[in-house]
Amino acid sequence: MAIIDEGDGGRCVSVDIAAGLPPAAALFHSLADETRLRIVQRLARGEARVVELTGELGLAQSTVSKHLACLRDCGLVDYRAEGRQSFYSLTRPELMDLLASAEQLLAATGHAVVLCPAPGLGSRADGDGDTPAAREAVA
């Protein structure tokens, strides 16, 4: 099940790949959503039910369910049923290694990536916006 919600800017990997995006770019695109990252970080500590995630993260049930569905579609999260309850967990522990590497990269670059106000515009750490994409946008 692929979820597309243009309001939150998030799409799932299978939708992005079907649209021609390279798999690595699709993976990072799916992780570009803060809510999904928070859910992944919480599930790194152990499995959880939707009700626990909503309480711990302060999110609506519908929001948590939507993002869990996306993460399931990506193959990063799955669940096990126990009676009428579903317990969600990470399927790929390598994901946490990837996120730890991203944090190290951000620390090494002085978080310069965060300073980019818009993709392709002002992407240099000095923020002067003098990039080919910025020059093209002005022309």
Describe this structure in words.
The chain is built from 7 helices and 4 strands. Helix content is 48%, strand content 12%. It is globular, with a radius of gyration of 17 Å. The N and C termini lie far apart (42 Å). The strands form 2 sheets. The chain has a two-stranded antiparallel ribbon with strand order 1-2. Strands 3-4 form a two-stranded antiparallel ribbon. It has 139 residues and is mainly α. Strand 3 and strand 4 form a beta hairpin.
Q: What is the CA–CA distance across the termini?
A: 42 Å
Number of strands: 4
Radius of gyration: 17 Å
Task: Give the biggest beta sheet.
Answer: 2 strands, antiparallel
Tally of helical segments: 7
List keywords for this structure.
single chain, 139 residues, two-stranded antiparallel sheet, 7 helices, globular
Topology:
Layout: E1 4-5, E2 10-11, H1 13-18, H2 23-30, H3 34-43, H4 50-57, H5 61-73, E3 77-82, E4 85-90, H6 94-108, H7 132-138
Antiparallel strand pairs: 1-2, 3-4
